[in-house]
């Protein structure tokens, strides 16, 4: 107890201490309690169809993503705790130029959703993996794993070429971004969020600490992304989305933007793409290649994890490469 | 300026989020947002978050506090939002408001020659899901629906022109990717929006062909029913 009291003397800790805990937690607890108690009174006053639709979609995205995020931070915790740098070096070639395609193919074997892959990539970087290699893995894992490919095959029945085009375009995107990053962006600062090294802790505590840190770190940004995606879904008139489908450039551009803002799970986006019947196959492919690689939720999480300077360069790079790669594959295969 | 999230508040954040997930999955309310197979992952995840919070309480007893973990982004405050929205707005399953905006469910476009539809079962009226109606109406000019009384279930929605529909959402992953399946109804006065109904109706031949427009049905009987536990398909 005395230790934690000392800690709260730091200037950033707001409020006084009450029994060793900062005042903040009591205030927050009180506000939550008051809101829940007044629920009966508040609910009818918040009853508007648009707000209800927004909150359904918002809660749905968060609820759907959190188990996958927890899975991802657990995997990241396992990497942080169990995988020594030596072991990692054995898997990942020391030369990053070779490491990039290896990381891309490793994504095939590890089904993870995009929310999970951000903490995993952060953890790989902390373990000394070259950023370009970790970023390739970040882009490949949610896009080319078997779960995503199977769901694409289900969404596009009797169209194996769509599955193949999606697989190749996503893999090319991941590897190309990795190599471009290696060549041109080696000096862009990437924040490595250091966590505390409590040497007194056992392995279990270190593991839990890492999981907790990564979860809290990413979850706030996930919620922010879900808020934006739900707002787009609810408030942008459908006619605006539909009216651009006719023109090739508008269609490709709008599909890229649509994928970016609606931030769907890579397991689900093939069904949405298939349902956009007004659009050409290439535009649908753009949607399916951009979505898992970059969206508003991922951009938000990545700027939290790796810093704003990083996100400012990485986000546009990924989008441009993904659109080009999808258009190329669409022209070739579809 | 928003206050930094202290370590104790982080612990509360984990506990509240975990408790809400468990609460949601223990009842039926999670079915308004995600697929039914998500129940156990949600419970496991909620319990895990609670354990994480408890482990932290236990840890604070012994070890010295640490200076690093308090530095989490202020965005972490937002993690309270889903729990609060869940309790305060109690978001319902998607309804008539979204039906007018959502993507239409696609009828898989195949070569008509490759599709062979089995005849409908013998019952009269024959219960049929909306996606089945859409599919059967799209091929063969709806020949398999001809002269049959169909029993359809869904909620009431309207489009801008005032046409009303028997409606249901299909869900792949979560409510964000819901697609709408609907059948335009004529013949009776429509109940209010979002009311669940069971109708006995006949298909208007030729409507919904090719899967482009909604099929139309002429309603003979209409019964108001309770919303099902899982309102998605």
Automatic annotation (TrEMBL), chain A:
Q: Which family does it belong to?
A: Belongs to the UPF0718 family.
* Chief site of localization: membrane
Q: What is the lineage of its organism?
A: Bacteria, Bacillati, Actinomycetota, Actinomycetes, Propionibacteriales
The record ties this protein, via Pfam families, to: ArsP_1
**UniProt keyword annotations, A-Z:** Cell membrane, Membrane, Transmembrane, Transmembrane helix
Indicate how the chain sits in the lipid bilayer.
Multi-pass membrane protein
Q: What is this protein called?
A: Permease
Q: Which InterPro entries match?
A: DUF318, UPF0718
Question: What cellular component GO annotations does this protein have?
Answer: plasma membrane
Membrane-spanning parts = 21-42, 54-79, 91-112, 132-156, 163-182, 215-236, 248-264, 310-333
Automatic annotation (TrEMBL), chain B:
Q: Which domain of life is it from?
A: Bacteria
- Any stretches that span the bilayer, and where are they? 37-55, 75-94
Query: Which keywords annotate this record?
Result: Membrane, Transmembrane, Transmembrane helix
What Pfam families does this protein's entry cite?
Answer: DUF1980_C (PF21537)
User: Is the keyword NADP in the record?
Assistant: no
Please report the stretch or stretches of sequence annotated as the DUF1980 domain. 143-232
Matches recorded under InterPro entries: DUF1980, DUF1980_C
Coiled-coil ranges per the record? none
NCBIfam families xref list: TIGR03943 family putative permease subunit (TIGR03943)
This chain belongs to which protein, by name? Answer: TIGR03943 family protein
